[in-house]
Design the sequence.
């Protein structure tokens, strides 16, 4: 339960536990956020906790318009990364330990948390420093080699997201799982998309970002199932959404390639 009503400290003093170097990181990030938008620190704020790095304190507003309490001041995680990590560590273990993982468009916070895994690989078409510089709709990997694929806010950027989902299915082992998040409007049953809308300003107006191809609706799960997956969703109770600084209308999709129950990634 989110019963901790401790008031957040002023930005310069809100670093959580950690080394002096990490405390400096927190102070620097909070100072930068204050300079960009000091209004986000107005009034009393509830401290949030990052399940990835353990930081407890004020989080930082990001986005246009900003989502306040979005970015962890220490590791930089956003809401979706913390939600995914809560699933990974649900029950006190680590569902990804020892798994062969392919992480698309790897985000810094998750990359750091997962990078110690010897089976961890990264992929992107444009991002430098990844293991595989690849197009998600035409992967060069062999069939059935990964236990887990992670793609946070990737599919909305892909023209043919159905083909990308088929490729994720193909490279997963039977029983393997794709961990997926997308921008989704849960008040709409169906996904809004129009391939004729290509202008960045128009895409921004229609799909909420200049490089998004669509705005998913609740039928996103049907699109994932059409690639062959079974689909489950994960979210946490509202008090924990508050505690961990999550979005109340975002959940994690866990897409499993059916197969031998003994080969399941969990
Ligand atoms: Zn963090």
Sequence:
């Amino acid at each position: 339960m989110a019963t901790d009503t401790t008031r957040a400290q002023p930005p310069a003093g809100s670093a959580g536990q950690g080394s002096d170097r990490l405390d400096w990181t927190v102070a620097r990030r909070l100072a930068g956020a204050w300079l960009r938008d000091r209004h986000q620190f107005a009034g009393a704020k509830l401290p949030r906790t990052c399940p990835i790095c353990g930081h407890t304190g004020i989080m930082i507003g990001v986005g246009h318009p900003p989502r306040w309490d979005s970015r962890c001041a220490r590791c930089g995680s956003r809401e979706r990364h913390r939600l995914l990590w809560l699933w990974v560590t649900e029950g006190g273990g680590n569902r990804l330990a020892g798994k062969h993982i392919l992480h698309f468009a790897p985000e810094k916070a998750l990359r750091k948390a997962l990078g110690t895994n010897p089976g961890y690989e990264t992929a992107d078409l444009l991002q430098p420093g990844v293991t595989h510089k690849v197009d998600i709709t035409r992967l060069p990997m062999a069939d059935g080699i990964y236990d887990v694929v992670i793609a946070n806010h990737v599919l909305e950027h892909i023209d043919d997201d159905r083909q990308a989902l088929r490729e994720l299915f193909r490279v997963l082992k039977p029983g393997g799982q794709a961990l997926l998040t997308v921008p989704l409007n849960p008040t709409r049953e169906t996904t809004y998309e129009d391939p004729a809308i290509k202008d960045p300003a128009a895409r921004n107006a229609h799909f909420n970002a200049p490089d998004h191809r669509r705005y998913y609706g609740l039928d996103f799960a049907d699109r994932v199932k059409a690639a062959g997956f079974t689909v489950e969703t994960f979210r946490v109770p509202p008090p924990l959404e508050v505690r961990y600084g999550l979005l109340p209308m975002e959940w994690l999709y866990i897409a499993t390639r059916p197969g031998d129950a003994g080969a399941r990634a969990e």
The longest helix spans residues 20-36. Residues 87 and 234 are 7 Å apart (CA to CA). Helices lie at 20-36, 79-88, 108-114, 161-171, 200-207, 220-226, 238-243.
